[in-house]
Structures are given as C-alpha cells and as structure tokens.
Design brief:
single chain; 219 residues; alpha/beta; eight-stranded mixed sheet; 24% helix; globular
C-alpha cells in the first residue's frame, strides 16, 4: 500500500533560521501527537552558518554571518539566498526505522533531481552529501581528482520523525563558504547548478524535486 503524499510547502522570500527551527519543532510535535501529517518545507535563508553536533571550533574560520547551533548531525555548513533548503519532516515509523537507508534515500533523491539537469551527482564513502567530479580543475596535492559539493545533508530524529534535511546550491554566492571548512572537509570545494553552467531557477529545481521524490520514497 502506498503512503500518503507529504504536504509540500514553499516559503516565500527569506525565512529567518530561528523561525524555521521553531516551526519544524512545532510540526514534528504535532506529527508525533497524530495532529499533523508529513511535510516537505522548501525555504531560502538569509546568509548564515549552522553548526551541527560534530562541528569543530577550528572549522569556523570567519564568522562574518550569524552562527546557529543546529542540533542536526554533521558539522558546519552555509545557508543563504540562491540555495534551496528542503526541511524533510517524514515519519520513519512508517517508512522504515533505518537511519542509514534514509540518508542514502535523501542523497539518491538529490542525485535523481540533478540528473534532470544533466548533472551527475555522486555519493562518496565517508562524506555525506552529494558531490560532482571536476576533472577540468587542478587535481589535489595527492593527485586525486577535485570534487565539489553541491548538496549537503543533515538530519535529526525525534520519535523516528525526521527534521532538518538537505540543501542544494542553485546560485548562492559561493565565496560565502570561505568563512567555514564546509562539513569539516578540506581540499575539495563547493559548486552550484549555475556554476556548472546550468541556467536553473529555483522554480525549476522545485519542480524536479517534486517529480523525483516518489522514485526514492514511494509517495
């Protein structure tokens, strides 16, 4: 039996981070109490850094933007205009209580979405998120190919209900990442759809996310 389709909500403008966290907390509480269903909330934030539960102080190089303790897994990441943040409030009691499989499904969802724009996103062992190979850029010091991160993932679970989620770079200011060591990973960089030469709008990405969701989550 197929699961009910989650509610899709697209927030206009820029959503303050603290406001987003409070709204997620309230919705997850309502889900746990049986008062609300699953929700996929698509937002953009003003420029800010978030620190996950594994963040290292040394990875905050220049706190030029507000820094928020996120409570999700992972390390430092950046959010800002031109980046689509997808807050995934999904019920793993019904979707399977397997955190690793859930994260891989999120990564796969992003990869499927990027493929609709002829971008090959890839997973990497030991590096959560989605990566793009950049053979046209200089190799790393050890001779390995440069890879740039295009999507970050960090989730939190409460009573097997997920919140926080993922972010995909459409056309953010990539120089804003220089204030942190993104996700604690050095050497590799960050990219976006527009940086890769894909003239994708936020609306284009949202449509692709909706079209590819069922491939990984069955609803």
């Amino acid at each position: 039996m197929s699961l009910p389709q989650p509610e899709w909500v697209i927030a206009p403008g820029l959503t303050p981070y603290a406001e987003a966290v409070a709204a997620m907390e309230a919705h997850v509480a309502d889900m746990a109490a049986g008062r609300a269903g699953e929700r996929l909330w698509l937002v953009e934030h003003p420029p800010l850094y978030t620190a996950g539960t594994s963040a290292q102080a040394a990875d905050l190089l220049d706190p030029r933007f507000p820094v928020h303790a996120a409570g999700r897994g992972g390390q430092y990441t950046y959010h800002g205009p031109g980046q689509r943040v997808v807050y995934t409030m999904l019920d793993l009691n019904r979707r399977g209580r397997d955190v690793r499989a859930f994260v891989q499904s999120l990564e796969g969802w992003v990869i499927d979405t990027l493929a609709s724009f002829a971008v090959k996103g890839e997973m990497r062992c030991g590096r959560v998120g989605v990566w793009v190979s950049r053979p046209e850029k200089p190799a790393l010091a050890d001779g390995s190919m440069r890879e740039d991160k295009i999507a970050a993932i960090g989730i939190k679970l409460r009573r097997w209900i997920s919140f926080h989620g993922l972010s995909i770079n459409v056309e953010p200011d990539l120089t804003h990442y220089s204030g942190i060591v993104p996700c604690g990973i050095t050497g590799h960089g960050v990219t976006s759809l527009v940086d890769l030469g894909r003239p994708v709008t936020m609306e284009d990405l949202d449509s692709a996310l909706k079209a590819s969701f069922a491939q990984r989550f069955g609803a």
